[in-house]
Structure formats: C-alpha cells, structure tokens
Amino acid sequence: MLTSEDEAVRRLAAGFALDEALDVMDPESWIGLDIGVRELAWQWPELFHSNASPSGRRLNWSRDASPPTVTWPRKPDDAELALALCHPDGRIREAALGHAEERPALLALVVIRCADWAGPVRDRARALLAEAPPHRLAAHAALILRVGGRSRGGFTQELLTGALRAGPAAQAEALLDSGDRATARLAYRVAVERRLLPIARLAQIAARHRDVVVQDLCAAAAVAALGEGTFEEFAEGVVPLLASRQPRVRSAGVTALRRAGRHADAEPYLTDRSAVVRACARWVLRQGGTDPVPLYRALCADPAGSRPAAAVGLGECGMREDADRIRALLAHPVPGVRVCSVAGLRALDAVRVDDVRPLLDDPSAAVVRQATAALLPWADCVPQELLRELLTEDRPRHQRVAAIRLLRAVGVHAQL
Questions:
Q1: How many whole angstroms separate alpha carbon 147 and alpha carbon 156?
Q2: Which residues does 225 contact at the CB level (< 8 Å), separation at least 6?
Q3: Domain presence at residue 285
C-alpha cells in the first residue's frame, strides 16, 4: 500500500509540479519526500529512468554506472531536481546540489541535505544555505528546527538563530504567532534577547499564552524589565502576571512584588490554590520583614473566612503545635476547607488516623480523595469492616473507590 510520501514521489516522477505533488508549506511533507525517494529509488528504478517518460524529461539514475550518472536532456526543472536531491546515492545528491542554486522552491531540500550523512553533500548544501537571504531562512524555520534536532543538524539551527538575531525586528516578530511550537519558542527567545517587546506586552503574553516555555520566557523578561517601583510599570508588568490562571506565571508576579518594593501586596497570595505561589508569597513577605506564620494562624482561627488554603499554607510553614489549629477545621462546613485541612496535616506530617478516617464518609469527592491519600501510609490501621461498608452499591462512587484503594494497599483484592 502506497503512503502519501510514496504518492508524492510517483507524482513528481510522472511530471507533476512540486506544489501539485506535495504540500510545500508543510515541513513534514519535505521530510516525507526525502524518505520516500530513498525507499522507492531502488525498489522501482523505472520511475526515474528517462525512458519511463515519453517526453524523456525524467532523470536518468543508473545504479550500475561507476561513477553514477546524473544526466538531463535539458536544464532540469524543480521536480526533477527534488528527486535527485533525495536520491540514496550521495554522489547523485551532491551533483544535484550543483543545480539547486537560485532555486528557492528547493531550499527546503537544501536544508535537509545540510544534515546529510555524507560529508561532501553536507558541505555543499551548507555553502548554499549560507548564501540564502534571511527572509527565506525564516520562511523555512519550522523545517530548519526539525533538521536542527538531528545529529548533524546544528548548522541549520545556528544559521537561522543568527539570522533572526541580526535581521530586521519585523522578521523575528513575524514568527511569534507561528503555529509551529519550536518556531514560536525560538522567535520569543530572540525577541526577549533583543528587547523587542514592551513590558506590558510581555506580561500579557505570559499571562495568556498556552505554551509554558513562552510563559516562562515572557514572565521572566517582564520581571527583569521592571524598574524601581513606579506605579505605571507595576500595573503594566506585574498586575497581568498576578491575574494569570497559570501558577508559574502568578508565582513570577508574586516574586516581582519584592522587586517593586510592594512586599505587603503578597499577603493575599499566601492562600493561593498553588503551592508554588504560596511559597513565593511567603518568601516575599519574609524579605519585607513579615513572618507569614502568624498570618496563617489568624486566618485559620476564622473558620468563616473565604480562604480555604490557609490550613495547607500553615501546614507548609508552621510548627508541630499548629496541628491542633488545622485539625479544628476538619469538620468545617465548606468542603474546600476540609480538603486543605487534610492537606495541611499531611504537609506538617501530623496525620492521625482517628481524625481523618471519618472523612472517608464525606459527601465531597475532593475531601475523600485527600483523606484517602493521607491514610494510605497507614491503611493497615483502618478497619476493614468500615472499608467494606463503603463498598456497598448505595455508596457514592468516590467512597467506593477510596475503599478499594485502601484495601488494595493492605493486599486485599477489591473492585467496583
């Protein structure tokens, strides 16, 4: 059965133009063509012999000739050269490169040949690519970065990176919205190095972009660009970071509060849902001379508060004597507080089976999951009769799952 790569090779051999035989905008199409030609050239050599085409336009590749012959009855077209540039015999690929200069349609295959296993082919291709204008390199950025990941592909990646660093700013900025992840990451890296993006845009990109690498790059750049605390810079560079839904970005924003001299503004983030954000908030407060532990204790003393993560935050930085404060919240009416209370006891290494065991019967699935995780190290201390009661069909699924996990932890087979 023919693959799409095989079909592209056959279409080129039959005289179709490049853009008719494959998707010239897709780097994978070029890579597939390179593989397809090598596989088919020896299996069906008649595809490439000149007598296979009534017009005699096809390339004559003779495996028996020594050295191999590469002949055209006239100046080869792009389709013919594309086939020759992918041939399994390196001497044919090298000869074809001699005709590839000033053929922009074939630059993608020149890129691929830059990582060729054959030294002469590789050297000739690199010499050609080094003469290519920067805008053409940028147009093939996705392919260049794929080839750059090969064992001999570093040249292409360095060439592209150098072109983006030294070329017009618009050239690098045009790749920021690339649908290819590696291309966009490189473009952002260059844009940050060249300081092409203002602090407000860096912060907005960090807060909204889907790629975590881009988030980190832009968040770090926004924080680094922050001055010595003017309100305008704070609003543009930090507020969007603090409002991000991504914990990594929020943590960068919280850390930036110290640079902006606004240590006290970190206090609300002591109860962030993310542990890394909470840790950053504690660090910023300490840098400003404030101990976060009393703040956590005050929050835990107010069970009507709307910041459930206070319990887990106290467990992360408190002392053993704070365990009783956290245990008092295990019966809190808000499920989120109960979840964080169990998590706080785990963080403080103060879990007591008798305190947490009743939560296996909790109506909240989140509470039961956290209680199960807390009890797993002491599963042998949980009465099996209780766990078997949780397995009855009238029980909610999350309670039955918890019972199964705890029973299996002591070697008792159970299932839903």
A1: 7
A2: 195, 199, 202, 237
A3: yes
> What confidence score (pLDDT) does residue 51 get?
44
pLDDT digits (tens, 9 = 90+) for 283-293: 999 999 999 99
Q: Is-contact 215 209, C-beta < 8 A?
A: yes
List the one residue out of 217, 229, 216 whose CA is nearest residue 258.
Answer: 229
What confidence tens digit (pLDDT) does each residue in 373-412 have?
A: 999 999 999 999 999 999 888 999 999 999 999 999 988 8
CB of 28 closer than 8 Å to CB of 22: no
What residues have CB less than 8 Å from 389, skipping those under 6 apart? 395
For residues 400 and 416, is the Cβ–Cβ distance under 8 A? yes
- C-alpha angle 214-280-341 in degrees, rounded to nearest 5: 115
Say yes or no to pLDDT of 228 above 60. no
Please check whether residue 256 lies inside any domain of the structure.
yes
* CA trace torsion 221, 222, 228, 231 (10° rounding): 170
Number of domains making up the chain: 1
A 10 A CB-CB count for 66 gives 8
Query: Letter for the amino acid at 175?
Result: L
Do residues 336 and 308 touch, judged by C-beta distance below 8 A? yes
pLDDT level of residue 8 (50, 70, 90 thresholds): confident
Q: Distance between CA atoms of 46 and 53, rounded to whole angstroms? A: 9
Please report whether residue 339 resides in a domain. no
Please give the helix or strand (H or E) that residue 71 lies within, else none. Answer: strand 70-71
Per-residue three-class SS string for 144-168:
HHHHHCCCCCHHHHHHHHHHHHHCC
> In this structure, is residue 277 part of a structural domain?
yes
The Cα–Cα gap between 303 and 190 comes to 50
Query: Encoding tokens for residue 28?
Result: 């994978």
**Enclosing domain of residue 251:** 197-225+238-289
The size of the chain, in residues, is: 416
| Bridging pattern class, strands 60-61 and 70-71 | antiparallel
Rounded to 10 degrees, the C-alpha dihedral 223/226/230/236 comes to -60
